[in-house]
Amino acid sequence: MTLLKNDKIILRPLEPEDLDLLYKWENDSAIWSSGNTMSPYSRYVLKEYIAQSHLNIYDLKQLRLMIELCREGKAAGMVDLYDFDPHNKKAGVGILLDPEFQGNGIATESLRLLTEYAFSFLKLHQLYAYIAITNSRSKDLFIRSGFSVSGKMKDWISTESGFRDVFILQKLAME
Fold first, then answer.
1. Cys-Cys link to 155, which of 21, 131, 163, 165 (CB 3.0-4.6 A)?
2. Sequence-distant contacts of 19-22: CB under 8 A, at least 24 apart
3. How confident is the model at residue 16 (pLDDT cuts 50, 70, 90)?
């Protein structure tokens, strides 16, 4: 088994050439409430982030990988392992796919590869994701990928229209 790659996509480290895409995605205020972004990122900050991305997940407590289409050599999105907890063998999972590439199974394949890597190589016991109850596409993606809804957090995120509940979804290595 080849980790982080199949015939359709490769999950690869950040490269300096990714700066413009990272800048575009990180500064899209329409998706800030899906994560924890509070303000735009400068090119300088993102350039420094890319420069530090060579450090391993044990140092940074996170891992961001670009989703690249094998045939086109084009970045379609990114996946993250965040809040990495090596003692309890768990991490949060995030995924962003550019709207241009949605609906092609790329997110499903990316999540599958990331999950295999987390469980087989990093030896994690558990992955989890917080998903706004209004984000049914993301919830469906994670459920298709073997995650289960394990609870609902009331008024967990603040949005322009008020507080919003989120589901917490989990996947254990043995499931």
1. 163
2. 19/43, 19/46, 19/47, 19/50, 21/66, 21/75, 21/98, 22/46, 22/49, 22/50, 22/78
3. confident
- Residue 9: exposed, middle, or buried by beta-carbon count in 10 A (0-12, 13-18, 19+)? buried
For 97-139, what is each residue's pLDDT tens digit? 999 999 999 999 999 999 999 999 999 999 999 999 999 999 9
The residue among 13, 20, 28, 107 whose CA lies nearest residue 65 is 13
Nearest CA to 79 out of 12, 128, 170, 131 is that of 12
pTM: 0.88
The DSSP result for 103-138, as a single string, is: TSSHHHHHHHHHHHIIIIIS--SEEEEEEETT-HHH
- The predicted-structure confidence for 49-107, as pLDDT tens digits, reads as follows 777 777 789 888 999 999 999 999 999 999 999 999 999 999 999 999 999 999 999 99
